[in-house]
Design a protein that fits this description.
CATH superfamily of the largest domain: Pseudouridine synthase I, catalytic domain, C-terminal subdomain
Mean pLDDT: 95
CATH class of the largest domain: Alpha Beta
CATH topology of the largest domain: Alpha-Beta Plaits
Number of domains: 2
Shape: globular
Number of strands: 10
Strand content: 25-35%
Structural class: alpha+beta
Length: 253
């Protein structure tokens, strides 16, 4: 790739996908299907040279996105952005879609330039699972008290050390993050947890949801959140919610 910014374009993509069929966003070993691999293959074919697509962050196997952001550089200056988006969508599988494409500054990076992200988690609360929502929600057969979950969620707002809500595989030394919003809403049989923050640790949102569900079913009081934040001990928090209900909704820059 030419190092002269004038001879290339940095293209920002907003991508939606159903992650049920993929081993997450990030490219892995040969033979393992991921969303990044599919997007790179489509982009490379359209622009006529290999490209490396950088995502705003990893999503695990089975996790979805409505607003994943990715960027890549290309020396192809001729193809219009609308044509690029349409051509990529024609070559991507039906469960991945390029929602928009735009040229951004050369120093833009989908991950490093991000300032906040919003995730949504859907819990379907009913005795019988919904076939229509398969792979889109966590089916939870016990009743949950959304008010109790809401009382726990508000305690997460602010700057805290979230090590107690990260998986044991988290290797980053700095585990302090800021949560701007953590809301719990209920509509019919669905409870939706929405979280906006300046960054998230590995499995942090799924661990938050698993903990709020324990509060919602009455095992713990909402004040349990305070204990988790103070101890930074993963053992104090709830189980990791399954990936099915999680979706990356938007990334802000």
């Amino acid at each position: 790739m030419d190092d002269n910014p004038a001879s290339r374009r940095n293209i920002k993509l907003v991508i939606a996908y159903n992650g049920a069929a993929y081993h997450g966003w990030q490219r892995q070993a040969e033979g393992i299907d991921t969303v990044q691999l599919r997007v790179e293959a489509a982009a490379s074919r359209i622009v006529g040279h290999p490209v490396s697509v950088s995502g705003s962050g990893r999503t695990d196997a089975g996790v979805h996105a409505a607003g994943q952001v990715a960027s890549f550089r290309t020396t192809n200056l001729a193809i219009p952005l609308r044509g690029l988006r349409r051509a990529m969508n024609s070559r991507l599988p039906r469960d991945i879609a390029i929602r928009s494409a735009e040229v951004v500054a050369d120093d833009f990076h989908a991950s490093r330039s991000a300032v906040r992200k919003t995730y949504r988690y859907r819990v379907y609360v009913a005795p019988m699972r919904s076939v229509e929502l398969c792979s889109q929600v966590w089916h939870y057969w016990r009743s949950l008290n959304a008010e109790r979950m809401r009382a726990g969620a508000v305690r997460l707002v602010g700057e805290h050390d979230f090590r107690g809500l990260a998986t044991s595989a988290e290797v980053r030394e700095n585990t302090v993050r800021t949560i701007y919003r953590c809301e719990v809403a209920q509509a019919d049989s669905e409870i939706v947890v929405s979280v906006t923050g300046n960054g998230f640790l590995y499995n942090m949102v799924r661990n938050i949801v698993g903990t709020l569900v324990e509060i919602g079913r009455g095992r713990w009081e909402p004040e349990r959140i305070d204990r988790i934040l103070a101890s930074c001990d993963r053992c104090d928090a709830g189980p990791t919610a399954p990936p099915d209900g999680l979706s990356l909704m938007s990334v802000e820059y």
